[in-house]
Each structure stands twice: as structure tokens, then as C-alpha cells.
Amino acid sequence: MRLFAVPTPDSYPESVAVGPAGTIWFTEKQGNRIGRLAPDGGLTEFPIPTPDSRPQAIVAGPDGALWFTENRGNKIGRITPAGVITEYPVPTPASYPFGIAAGPDGALWFTLSGTNRIGRITADGRMNEFGLAKTLTPYGITTGPDGNLWFTGFNSNTVGRITPTGDVLEFPLPTPDSGPQDIVSGPDGSLWFTQAATDAVGTITTGGRIAEFPLPALECGPTATDGRPPRCTDTKAPYGIAADRHALWVTQHCGGRLSRLSPAGRFSEVGLGGLKAPNGIAIGPDGDVWFALARSNGIGRHRPGSGEK
């Protein structure tokens, strides 16, 4: 386990993505910057032109640039590998763009959590939006193995699918108020998503079959010497999710750990040595697990052992 500290204090690293030439890119939600971590460990920060834009998610685009959402700035940003930033305003005010994914059509697709829509932007900046009938507060989005975009509805307790032409289908989740957040295409051909409010990870096939896997219970340690119950975090709050060739990796925002989940539903956990609030997560080209540490103001790296590959 290694921590790469962000120079800007209290920057609140939020999301990570793998860029060209093995670079790791990340958003600084409170620092209002985009960060780049080179393979040699050198870290560079690039200020976003819009003040207090609250950059949220980031993803590598098909054009070789990185694309990110500005949640408070109501814009979609693009940054080149050299650090040149271009911003594109979202047409609808107060849309609060959240998640973003590279689509199967060469465009970038993103969620608009404030207006319950899905947005699409081409590499040259042309943008359009699609309304959602049932989804409330769409958060995560990813491209599925079926060539469609899949997204979560945090406040509607749904997972949705949108085709590249804009047709939408929404699936209610079995557990009420589970808070579906991040979503990724898994190694088994299904979609996997975090359920932040119920400490679980869910999966849905492209045909709509859903299963849910609760995270293992917290181990709080022995009872305090004065007879009071032990104090421990009562929730793990699974947040980000990423997939390697064999399994899913999940950050526990409140639990302060990483979870590894096999497609068969078997969990194992990795402690972070006191590092706090892991959020977004990505898998590097060499299999390393990279994650943003919001409260430890850095980017973490975990190199899986032989039993985790």
C-alpha cells in the first residue's frame, strides 16, 4: 500500500481514471483542480478555470484526452495529456453533472443528477440530453457489454439502461432505499454497482436479472473496559467500484478499506492502514488498484498479491 500525497491541502480527491502512458488522473473536488500522477510518482495539478466547479467524475476519452464533470460548475470539462482544459456548459441550468463514461459511439455520456437526465457530448463539444421517466438522482454510468449505457438512480433505487439512440429501460432494486451509486461492467458480462445505503454490492445481467451481496459485518473488537459497547463505524458505505479480469474492487468510504468481490459473491478485504475515506477507484494497466482518498488528501495504490489475481 502506498499513498501519493496531493500538494494542495484539503483538496478532497474524488475520482480516478487511467490515462495515456500509464498516467493516473483524478479530480480534486474541493481543490478545484485536476491532478495527474506520472508513472515515476511525479504529481502535477491543473487549476480548473471555473471557480468552485466541484469536479466529480473523470474518464479517459476516445480522443486521448480526459473528460470530467463539474458538479457545481454545470459543465463538462476536457483536459489534454499536456494539461490544457476546455469547458462545455450543460444547456439545462442546475443539472449537477455527476458520473461520466466513454460510450460505444465515440461520445462521452454523463448523468445529470439535478434534472434526472442523461447527457451526451461528442469529442467536438456538441451536447444533447435525454429525460428519464422514473430515475431520480442518476449518479454512476458505464458502458455495458451489450453496447448500451447503464446507470444508477440513487434516490429512485433503480438501475437503468439507455441505448445510444436514447431509449431508456429502468429496473427497480429488491432492497428498498439501497442508494445505488457507482456502476461498472464486470468480468462475467454483467453490470455491478455499489449500494451505499445498505452496505451491499449488486449485480444485474443485461437481461435484467438482479442479485445483491451484503458486505461482511464490521468487526468492532472487544467490549470497552468500562462495560460500554465498543465504538465503531456502523456503516461501510461502499462507494466506488472497478473491475479487473477476475473480480470487482470496491472502496468503503466509511469503512476505510477495499473490498474484493468475486463474481460468485465471495468477499475479501484489504485494510488501508488508517487512510481515510476512499472514494473513486480504477484498475491500472499492470493490475494495480488506484483509489482516491478524500480525507487523507492523496491517491492510494494497492498492488494485489498472488491470491488476489
From TrEMBL:
Pfam families: Vgb_lyase
Species whose genome carries this gene: Methylobacterium variabile
Signal peptide annotation: none
Highest taxon in the source lineage: Bacteria
Protein name per its UniProtKB record: Virginiamycin B lyase
